Structures are given as C-alpha cells and as structure tokens.
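REQUEST ID: PR-0412
SUBMITTED BY: lab tech R.K.
PRIORITY: routine
TASK: structure prediction, single protein chain
INPUT:
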Amino acid sequence: MDIREIDLHDEPQVRRHWEVGRAAEAATRPYDFYWPWESARLTYSEGRYDLEIVLLGAFDGEGELWGASRVEHTVHDNLHVASATYHVHPDRWRHGMGRALAEASFDVARRRGRRLMTTEAHAPTDESSPGLEFARSLGFTEALQDGMKIVDLHESQHLWPGLAAAAESRHRGYRIVTWLDLVPEELVDGYCRLNELFFEDAPMGDLDVEPERWDEKRVRERESRNSRQGRHCVSAGAVAPDGDLVGFTEVVLSDHTPTRALQSGTIVAAEHRGHRLGTAMKVANHRQLLRHFPRCRLLMTGNADVNAAMNTVNQALGYREVERCVELQREI
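STATUS: complete
OUTPUT:
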C-alpha cells in the first residue's frame, strides 16, 4: 500500500478519489447527500480563496486508488485547525488504508502549523457505526452531536400556512424577506455580522474553534463560486423595524441534484429572539425553495441535540431524525 498526494488537476485520479468517497457513503448512510461530481471537479481544479485543500489517496500494489482523504486548512480564521474526511471503498475495508490515510493527514496538517484535527462520523440514531469506532480508535474524542433530519417538502407543505399564521402575530414590525443566490447589497453588512455570530451563539459543544471572519469579499467570492458550480443558495431573512438584518436561514441546492437540498445555517440575533422569526423565515424559505425548484423533494438538516429551540421548529415543520453526525477532534 502506498499513500500519495493527488494532483488536484489530474481529473481521472480526482474522479476516482470522488468515486471512492461516494461508494463508502452509499454503504453506510441512509440517504444519498454526497456532493455532485461537477461541484467536486470545479472545487479542486479552480481552488478556493478561503481554503487550502490537499487530497490523499491510498493505492494498492497494482496502483489502484481504494482509499481517499481530503484535508482542509482555512486561511482566514481558525489557523490552528485542519479538518479531514476519510473514506475507504467497501471492497477494501479492514486493510489498514483508513489508518494510514489518517496518519498521513496528520503530517499534512502539522506541516502547515495546525495542532488540531477535526472530522465527522455518521451513525444510526441509537447505536455506533464503523466510522465512529474508527475515529475513536485513532484518538479522536466526541465534541458535538447533531441529529440529521429529513423532511419531504411535498408532503409537509400543508403545515406551512398554520405555522406562518401563528408566527406572524409574534413578529409584527419585522419584515420577512427572501433572496436567491445573491445577498442584497443593503443586507450584506448584517449578513456578515450574523455569520460571525454563528460560532458564538450556536451550540459548539467542546469544539476548539474560533469565530469566523466575514466581509463582502468573502460573500461575493462564495456567490461567484456557487454560480460556476451550478449551486444555488435559497435564503430568507428577518429585518427589524430599524432596517437591520437580524436573522437568516439558507438552503443549498445543486443543478446536478435537483431533487434534494441541504439546510445550511439558521440564526436569529439574541436580542431579537422570542418573536418566532426562525419559524417565519423557514416557512418562507421552504415556500421559495419549491417555487424556484419544484422538483426538490428531500431537505436535510442537522441540529445539535442541545439546540432545543431549533429542534422544536424543525419538528413542527415535519422533520424526522434519520441518523447522527458526530463531530470529533484530536490534538496532533
């Protein structure tokens, strides 16, 4: 077995790396939410201004790639952290490839001055999984658990009118606004401020992470990258009486997987909570999502177990838990 770094411009090898990850996830997760090849190809070939990405492959004696790791290093914040994914094709499980990839990923991160490695493992709601046991065997410790939930938008939309009406009486004076792909210019400052609040307000468990830094350049760069990759960001926000954006929720969907979408962040500034803005924004965004992308059916979200408020909102919207995502970390 040989562990090698993969040239991000070597499309056949990058494609095989992606295929190994997809096969590994298909064998262990109840729903297919693996990222589309088109997004992966452009991410690796173009690079990202906010991340340095290193791909590692585990090759057998005949030179075939069977294990795949991606190591990411943020360049604007959290310069002490690297994050990694580890996948081994089901046909080569228990051949030591995962462990070898992990050790190589630690070396990659150390050379860039990182002292902490983070990763994720998925597991059924009430038991462990091979991925979780693998991470524990490497010395990773659990820092946060997210319940991964699914809602069928077509079957749950009958709930939306009642939820919207109940919420409306609680947030008089606020406006619920929506936008597709591009954050309106007048909302960018508030959008950046709220993004920086995520790591302060959202449940982070024992994760050793710092607040992110956001500015208009970061917002517009992400929007441009999304456009090139055929990815859409469907958003709703809450605007206070003074005109400030005080909350938002986002859903991400790809042209290449039009029947499914991923819920990204949802946040309401602390001083504006208690007005059911989260419910109002989510209902507005679910409606917008189906209006622009009527083929979309499944929406997945993840919430920390301790995030009682958001779990209550999602339960009312019809989400059901299908697995856990365990976030882990270890000193390297």
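NOTES: The mean pLDDT is 93.
REVIEWED BY: pending
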